Amino acid sequence: MNFEPFKLVPVGYVRKNGETFIEILPEFSDAVHGLNEGDWIKLILWFHASDTPGRRSVLKVHPYNNPKNPLRGVFATRSPIRPNPLAIYAVRINRIEGNRLYIDWIDAIDGTPVVDIKILVERLDCPKETPIPEEELEVPASRQVGEVNLIPRKGEYLDELEEVSPEEYEALVLELGPKTEVLTARELVELISALEEIYENLPVEIKDKLRTEGLRRREGRSP
After folding, report:
1. Is there a contact between 120 and 175 (Cβ–Cβ < 8 Å)?
2. Total structural domains in the chain?
3. In terms of domains, do 115 and 210 share one?
4. How far apart are CA 25 and CA 205, in angstroms?
5. Any idea what the CATH number is for the domain that residue 53 is in?
6. What superkingdom heads the lineage (predicted)?
């Protein structure tokens, strides 16, 4: 069987000089926009030191490189020896300085290429029993407000659940950073009521400005 090669280019490198950080290459610096200190991210690295024809051909290993452990297929391990030497780490950004993302220590060696960075989302990356299957979420209709992501349930599933009480019907996935919560219809109504109360307690001057901005947006004018 012939395989078409994939092209991967480094977006940065792991650096270790007493601290561990990811040095983003200048041409990819714009891709860092939106990341903040304290965010959890997934690093996808290329273990270049394990990228040899011999190591790529190894399909079973002793976990943790300990011969006392029985052989297992590499897909059932985190061994760096695999057909494509990719490694994935979940790390927290401790601080950001220019094109450097400072993180806790990881076992990748200095100079390891970083081929991609993604935000960590608990719902997708740390799956657990969830009342709402992914296919029932209206992901294209999700709204992001600040750091909060709101993902509603698809309306087409309402008929199937018409006998379910508001306390039982899960209506909304709420994500804050990597954390995920599911709100029932009753909790959603309570949240809306709480937000309306908080809004009403805003200073009059702030509410007037917000109303003016909202009117301008509806009329297609600039703020």
Report:
1. no
2. 2
3. no
4. 45
5. 2.40.30.70
6. Archaea
Q: Please count the other Cβ atoms lying within 10 Å of the Cβ belonging to residue 179.
A: 12
Residue 117, classified by CB atoms within 10 Å of its CB into exposed (0-12), middle (13-18) or buried (19+), is buried
153: region left, alpha or beta (phi > 0 left; psi from -120 to 50 alpha):
beta
d(CA 54, CA 219): 65
- Token pair belonging to 78: 């985190």
First to last CA, the chain: 60
Question: Is 6 a domain residue?
Answer: no
pLDDT of residue 179: 79
Instruction: Summarize the confidence of residues 75-91 as an average pLDDT.
Output: 91
Residue 65 — very low, low, confident or very high, per pLDDT cuts 50/70/90?
confident
Q: In the block, which residue shows the tokens 């950080």?
A: 21
More confident residue, 217 or 39: 39
Domain residue limits at 211: 126-218
Single-letter residue type at 66: N
- The answer to whether residues 154 and 93 belong to one domain is no
The whole-model pTM stands at 0.68
Round the average pLDDT of the chain to a whole number and report it.
Answer: 87
State residue 42's pLDDT score.
95
Encoded amino acid at 128, one letter: K
**Domain for residue 7, yes or no?**
no
The helix (H) or strand (E) run that includes residue 210 is helix 204-218
- Tokens 């400005």 map to which residue? 209
